[in-house]
Amino acid sequence: MGKTLFDKIWDNHVVSTLKGGTDVLYIDKHFIHEVTSPQAFDGLRKRNIQVFRQDKTVATADHNVPTINQHLPIKDDLSRFQVQKLTDNCKEFGVTLYGLGHDFQGIVHVIGPELGITQPGMTIVCGDSHTSTHGAFGAIAFGIGTSQVEQVLCSQCVLQTKPKRMRISIEGELNPGVLSKDIILYIISKLTASGGTGYFVEYAGSTIRSLSMEARMTVCNMSIEMGARGGMIAPDEKTFNYVRGRKFAPKEKEFDQALKYWKTLYTDKDAIFDKEYTFSAADIAPMITYGTNPGMGVEITGHVPTLEEIENPKTFNKSLDYMGLEAGESLLGKKINHVFIGSCTNARIEDLRMVADYLKGKQKADHVQVMLIPGSKQVEQQAISEGLDKVFAEAGFVLREPGCSACLGMNEDKIPSGEYCVSTSNRNFEGRQGPGARTLLASPLTAAACAVAGKIVDIRETLDL
Question: Radius of gyration (Cα) for the chain, nearest Å?
């Protein structure tokens, strides 16, 4: 019997299998940041253990960092402490750090791919749930907890139970105005926020193959939002061309040798998945969320479900109370106060180019505050070199400095209580963007259109189709 892509990579990294079925899984690359690593380093220090493979761990500061005046001391005491602690720990244990001011600093799941650190066939972990982003390269990538961060630091392995396999296929051509963010929000709305629990997902089909690498990263990024352990896409020529020539990618003969292996990374025709779904691209429209988990999404011209259309009225009503919405309500025309374009989901140069192209000749609404955050210093510099910052400025947007920013309200960039924010990030939980903040997840194009209109609009109505 053939193997799935997931099985090929997983089985190739199993060091041993313990009694009861738990695998000791070797990890090729470990990313860390300032939030989930301090306790892990303390654990090593208490046990007098060094980092086992220093060359396999890369650190960056992203969650707590401010996105303006990064050259100045961080104002928030906890944020300043955590960022400094990361610096101290990396120096003590010999770990490579791309901290504030470094040319490679940025959101952990943005810098890995753009630097060529992320490669097909790898196992990749990070103390962050959206590590699944790296699966877009045909890698097994997933988030781990702080105790597991310590495991990897001291052994380069992690204990894991092998998940079941799911394949989600999307076939056909996307409609105008529909982006990869809409694809994944559509999938989650159909499968729910728990529909992937216990599975590792492979995305396949002609629609997925047509996507750019950056768009594929967006899809894999939000796999965790349907409860999956992670998501992945088989590598192809787009993948190989993206990796080729990047800073830490294999060079010349080493690249050719790696390529031979990478080309074996696909699901065999006779491989069997534990569960499969197929969707048509023609059915996917621009999406927006209305509730407090990413599964609570609808087509932008649709309506908040009625009580008759949902299964759990108690949870549903609690969510609507928090969001200030009513069952059956249309979101079109609803006034918004904030737009956030950024995060590890949508802060790459392709996202910024798309937004800039849309904004030419347009102005944001006066009452809307916009946070436009590049995913890394490299993205920031590329945007400036292409003159995108000038386009943003003319539209009333300001290109800030890299960081997780308003995705999670762990830094200075928060949405005020009770106010609506159309966000390109990945989560809309209660308080995610700040206490009482009301988050509406959408694509970068939809977010830009809403910033200009000052209300929720259908991006298709604003495009020259």
Answer: 21
Lookup: tokens for 221:
């990024």
Residue whose entry in the numeric block shows the structure tokens 């499969």: 276
**Is residue 246 in some structural domain?**
no
* Same domain flag for 308 and 425: yes
Give pLDDT tens digits along the chain (465 positions). Answer: 899 999 999 999 999 999 989 999 999 999 999 999 999 999 999 999 999 999 999 999 999 999 999 999 999 899 999 999 999 999 999 999 999 999 999 999 999 999 999 999 999 999 999 999 999 999 999 999 999 999 999 999 999 999 999 999 999 999 999 999 999 999 999 999 999 999 999 999 999 999 999 999 999 999 999 999 999 999 999 999 999 999 999 999 999 999 999 999 999 999 999 999 999 999 999 999 999 999 999 999 999 999 888 888 889 999 999 999 999 999 999 999 999 999 999 999 999 999 999 999 999 999 999 999 999 999 999 999 999 999 999 999 999 999 999 999 889 999 999 999 999 999 999 999 999 999 999 999 999 999 999 999 999 999 875
Phi/psi at 421 (5° precision): -130, 120
Would 365 be classed as within a structural domain? yes
Q: Which helix (H) or strand (E) holds 412?
A: none
* Residues 342 and 362 grouped into a single domain: yes
Q: Residues 74, 198: one domain?
A: no
Query: Is residue 343 located within the same domain as residue 451?
Result: yes
Q: Specify the pTM.
A: 0.97
Q: Cα(108)–Cα(58) distance, rounded to whole angstroms? A: 9
427: domain CATH number is 3.30.499.10
199-204 sheet: strands from edge to edge: 230-233, 199-204, 164-171, 275-280
